Amino acid sequence: MLIEFIARHSLPRRGILADPDEILLTMGAQNALWLTAQVLLTRRHTAAIEFPCYHGLREILKNSQCNLISVAVDKDGLPPSEMPKNADVIFSTPSHQSPTNATMPLGRRKDLLSLAGEIDALIVEDDYEFEISFLGSPLPSLKSLDEDGRVVYVGSFSKSIFPGLRLGYLVGPEPFIREARALRTSVLRHPPGHIQRTAAYFLSLGHYDSLIRKMGQAFAQRRKVMEEALSLHGLSVEGSGKFGGSSIWMRAPEDVDTAELDLSLRKKSVLIEPGKSFFGSNGPGSFYRLAYSSIPAERIPAGIKMLAEELQVGFENRMATP
Amino acid sequence: MLIEFIARHSLPRRGILADPDEILLTMGAQNALWLTAQVLLTRRHTAAIEFPCYHGLREILKNSQCNLISVAVDKDGLPPSEMPKNADVIFSTPSHQSPTNATMPLGRRKDLLSLAGEIDALIVEDDYEFEISFLGSPLPSLKSLDEDGRVVYVGSFSKSIFPGLRLGYLVGPEPFIREARALRTSVLRHPPGHIQRTAAYFLSLGHYDSLIRKMGQAFAQRRKVMEEALSLHGLSVEGSGKFGGSSIWMRAPEDVDTAELDLSLRKKSVLIEPGKSFFGSNGPGSFYRLAYSSIPAERIPAGIKMLAEELQVGFENRMATP
Fold first, then answer.
1. Would you call A194 and B165 a contact, using CB atoms and an 8 Å cutoff?
2. Who among A27, A186, A193 is closest to B34 (CB)?
3. Which residue of chain B comes nearest to A58, CA vs CA?
4. B281, B285, B290, B291 alpha-carbon torsion, rounded to 10°
5. By CA distance, what is B60's nearest residue in A?
6. Bridge partner list, A143
7. Range A136-140 average pLDDT
8. Which residues of A touch B31 (CB under 8 A)?
9. Which of A24, A246, B209, B304 is deepest in the core (most CB within 10 A)?
10. Cβ–Cβ under 8 Å, residues A154 and A122
11. Which chain A residues touch B191 with a CB distance below 8 Å?
12. Residue A133: what pLDDT?
């Protein structure tokens, strides 16, 4: 039931046509990425990832012992011109680059696909929060532009329903899906059947569309309040996503360690996400991420004020230290 | 909550005392066995498994590329005297050997543990259906007799609540659990939080104990009806489990292929499980398993009658063939 719904409703919204045997349900996008890495990569292969990128993906690829190359993203996401020619698999988040929220323009999507054709690489497209697109219609997915079966698509219900649900899916050529299914069966059999069925009913009875609409309205308001508060306190936004999303990528002054900032703010019940883990071991410590998906709008300004004060206190302390 | 319940209620029933950081929740016993194999075995290690054994485990170990040795079980389960001295990890199902239902006597459990000490092997004890023990109190688990931390224990709610729930757990030394948890995080993060919480409430409010009692009564009756029907038609029982369980291990005449038998019976809505997959690639084709856990007692005699008739028809056909 759930696969049918994904094939008939979710994927067509992303311009993707897929048969049920080209779709595999997974335990969230994490599990989809893990299965993909196991099936596509050995230690003889090279994977290209975005820099910065989702830390869970870097962890998976490190464990797979493949050769790992990071390609720095810019304001339009992953630049095809910087792609190493020996990449076998390219991992990308074109809708909302994680964590910078950059959206890859259509032209670059086409360039990335033709580059992948030239160097004979596969692309894994992690489209983890395409539904959370409340500021405009999302651009066509890479998978929908793909004419020679190079793109494996990763979808997730974690951002749109809830993360603890652990439901995601893979879309790819049938032989790839068959192999991923055999591996999933050995690792965990299948995502719990009653969750699949409950989600299928929730989606097919229309509750999902209604939820997405309500979430979009709430997120748009929260985001507006957050942007106003950030602007009021003069905090630097590094990336905020043209189509929506659930977070804002922030940059603190260069000498701020946002892991420490997180610890001090945590005591005041203000939660930020330090950015270092997105860069791997030697990343800068001054980036951080602010999520607005789980906080009521009226609580946002006070939190941003405390964040700004904490940064100011830190600044004064550093100035006072000889 | 669920880990607390397992530590305070489930494990003490098996004589096991464990701290929460010695317990890991998994996606069913399958996932627990898979994680264990990944953490404990490389291609340089030797695993000993029971012959016949649960096919899902053989699949996992084949994929892990370790050296794999099968040890034939007898009516008391895995015989320690036949254990190869180079075994690094021994996989066993002492409560109800899968699929023969043999229960390992206490003396042999102690022998197996002291042997593991001598050859410095670890034991993975799969106690997948200990709750389904309606004919007598189960013997102490290997883990409860283990004094030097050699036993990793696998528990499951698949047989007692329902298989689609996909909830199981691992119990082992804290460093082992830490490593298994890191791997689980990379592979799938965690079992869905709301399932964990629902199961924890179900268990802690007492519904679980009541369910187990009701299941025990129903299973005892179904088993009795099945045994009477088998005896009436003169079908050969190979192993039926002294303490209960959910199935009976059967032997057809040697020239019967139970995979074919399954196909013919399936058309009449009688479901049996052909035994071949429990033996690996070259096993005998004449064993099969009859489960009584999901069928009302009143439907059992008619099914066994059809099974006996099908075997008789097969016999006559073979006799008629020159």
1. yes
2. A186
3. B186
4. 10
5. A186
6. none
7. 87
8. 187-189
9. A24
10. no
11. 166
12. 84
B200 contacts in chain A (CB < 8 Å) = none
| Predicted model pTM | 0.94
Q: What is the ipTM of this complex?
A: 0.92
Q: Mean per-residue pLDDT for A265-284?
A: 94
pLDDT digits (tens, 9 = 90+) for B64-120: 999 999 999 999 999 999 999 999 999 999 999 999 999 999 999 999 999 999 999
Residues of B in contact with A28 (CB under 8 A): 188-189
Q: pLDDT confidence of A322, banded at 50, 70, 90?
A: low
Query: What residue in B sits closest to A165 (Cα-Cα)?
Result: B192
> What integer pLDDT is reported at residue B322 of this predicted model?
63
Q: B230 is written with which tokens?
A: 């088998």
Cβ partners under 8 Å of residue A206, min gap 6: none
* B308's tokens: 């006996």
Which chain B residues have any C-beta within 8 angstroms of a chain A C-beta?
26-28, 30-31, 34, 56, 59-60, 63, 164-166, 186-195
3-state secondary structure chain A: CHHHHHHHHHHHHCCCCCCHHHEEEECHHHHHHHHHHHHHCCCCCEEEEEECCCHHHHHHHHHHCCEEEEEECECCECCHHHCCCCCCEEEECCCCCCCCCCCCCHHHHHHHHHHHHHHCCEEEEECCCCCCCCCCCCCCCHHHHCCCCCEEEEEECCCCCCHHHCCEEEECCHHHHHHHHHHHHHHHCCCCHHHHHHHHHHHHCCHHHHHHHHHHHHHHHHHHHHHHHHHHCCCEEEECCCCCCCEEEEECCCCCCHHHHHHHHHHCCCCCEECHHHHCCCCCCCEEEEECCCCCHHHHHHHHHHHHHHHHHHHHHHHHCC
The radius of gyration of chain B from alpha carbons, rounded to an integer in Å, stands at: 20
Q: What is the pLDDT of residue A129?
A: 84
Phi, psi of A237 (to 5 degrees): -85, 130
**How close B24 comes to chain A (CA, Å)?**
14
A187 vs B contacts (CB less than 8 Å):
27, 30-31, 34, 187-188
Chain A residues with CB inside 8 Å of B37's CB?
none
**Cβ burial, residue A321 (10 Å; 0-12/13-18/19+):** exposed
**What integer pLDDT is reported at residue A159 of this predicted model?**
85
CA distance A194 to chain B (A): 7
The chain A residues in contact with chain B (CB within 8 A) are: 26-28, 30-31, 34, 56, 59-60, 63, 164-166, 186-195
